[in-house]
Design a protein that fits this description.
CATH class: Mainly Alpha
Helix content: over 70%
Strand content: under 5%
Structural class: mainly alpha
Largest sheet: 2 strands, antiparallel
Radius of gyration: 20 Å
Order of helices and strands: HHHHHHHHHHHHHHEEHH
CATH superfamily: MFS general substrate transporter like domains
Number of helices: 16
Strand order of the largest sheet: 1-2
Length: 406
């Protein structure tokens, strides 16, 4: 990669890190919030779902216009809003106030996520995007390694609001770096006959079979993951008896494993192709779901947690790397915004549905086996959608070329 591409990838990874910390903190902080704000543990999924569904709404409403502007300006506005909204979360006093603050944060997180991935797609050649996406999406693993354990420790020492103050400060520092280091990004405005005032046709994108296939390939992977992930901390503590003080260690180990597996997965995706990697990952995920949630696990809880975090994260970046091949330059931000809608809708619905299915019975989460069964079924189906997508992408007449003609 060129020096400009490396800089863009690293800054995009920082944006994703702020977003990842903001999103991920709620889940492991669930027991603390339940205690200090009188929130039922079974409601934590609603807090995660509100953030992601709000991000989906904002991504949808901005998709039509986001390609009109300098990518840098879009990043600055979105990240400023996300940082200020995170600050508001620290002053919540009950479920409704925290729920409202999470919705506001999600509204800015949607465009921030999509524009970060757009910048990477603009700057990195197709043959190197698996590695680049692994670095950017690896921000979620870094959040798990350092951010979430640190946040849990801060919450233990200074109260549940402390992690939100720290993420706000990180967002402010990232804004300064973007302002100073990221150049104007306006090449897409002159990359075709399209002009800055020409709106991308969302209808043309949404009815295109290639685009639909791409969104389903990623969406199914995300949905199957987020049926389980928002409830992992509560499941470990309330069902398996893992101590609250051990959660920082769990997230640190899970994050380290995810960074290693993500980088290996990204390189293997570039070298061997996305489909073989995805099939291998699917087999591992199904094994973990069978052992971890269908009965009392044989494997240690730390092993199940670590491998599940690492494999599901790698499956997502593999799908994301393939999806970058779908849009044309002048519609990349619109495509990424719609993909962000897809990601947030699927993850948000999965989190909400999991909260609807799970019940709190004498301090234990029940019905977790039902969630695991659905997750396994979707894990089996997802590689089929990836296979069909790759087949269309490699065909002589890609359906995506029809978008420019409409």
């Amino acid at each position: 990669m060129s020096s400009t591409a490396v800089k863009a990838v690293l800054l995009a990874a920082l944006i994703q890190l702020v977003n990842a910390l903001d999103f991920m903190m709620i889940m492991p902080l669930g027991p603390d919030l339940a205690r200090d704000l009188a929130i039922s543990p079974a409601w934590i999924g609603y807090l995660g779902g509100s953030y992601t569904l709000a991000a989906a709404v904002s991504s949808l409403f901005t998709a039509k216009y986001i390609d009109r502007f300098d990518r840098k300006n879009v990043v600055l506005v979105a990240l400023t809003g996300l940082s200020l909204s995170t600050l508001l979360c620290a002053f919540a006093w009950n479920m409704p106030s925290l729920f409202s603050a999470r919705i506001l944060a999600g509204l800015f997180a949607g465009p921030a996520t999509s524009i970060a991935l757009t910048i990477v797609t603009d700057q990195v050649p197709v043959a190197q995007r698996g590695r680049a996406m692994a670095i950017v999406m690896g921000a979620f693993s870094v959040a798990a390694i350092a951010g979430v354990p640190f946040g849990l420790k801060l919450s233990l020492l200074y109260g549940w609001a402390a992690p939100f103050f720290v993420v706000t400060a990180l967002g402010a520092m990232t804004l300064i770096m973007i302002w100073l280091l990221l150049p104007k990004m306006i090449t897409h405005l002159s990359s075709s006959a399209h002009t800055p005032t020409t709106d991308v046709s969302l209808r043309a994108l949404l009815i295109n079979n290639l685009v639909i296939n791409a969104f389903l390939s990623m969406g199914i992977a995300i949905f199957s993951t987020f049926l389980i992930v928002p409830n992992l901390a509560a499941w470990l503590q309330f069902n398996l008896g893992v101590a609250r003080e051990a959660m920082s260690f769990y997230y640190m180990i899970g994050g380290v494993a995810s960074v290693i597996v993500l980088q290996c997965g990204g390189r293997l995706t570039d070298k061997l192709g996305a489909l073989p990697v995805t099939i291998l990952i699917a087999g591992g995920i199904i094994f973990l779901l069978l052992d971890g949630f269908m009965h009392h696990p044989w494997l240690p809880p730390l092993v199940i947690f670590t491998l599940f975090m690492a494999l599901t994260a790698t499956r997502t970046i593999t799908a994301a790397a393939v999806n970058t091949q779908v849009p044309q330059p002048w519609e990349r931000a619109a495509f990424m915004s719609l993909q962000s809608v897809c990601q947030h809708v699927f993850s948000g619905l999965a989190a909400v549905i999991s909260s609807m299915i799970l019940i709190d019975v004498n301090g234990r989460l029940e019905n977790i086996a039902q969630l695991a069964s659905v997750s396994m079924l979707l894990t089996l189906i997802q590689p089929l959608f990836l296979f069909w997508l790759l087949k269309k992408l490699h065909s002589p007449h890609k359906a995506v070329e029809e978008i420019a003609e409409k």
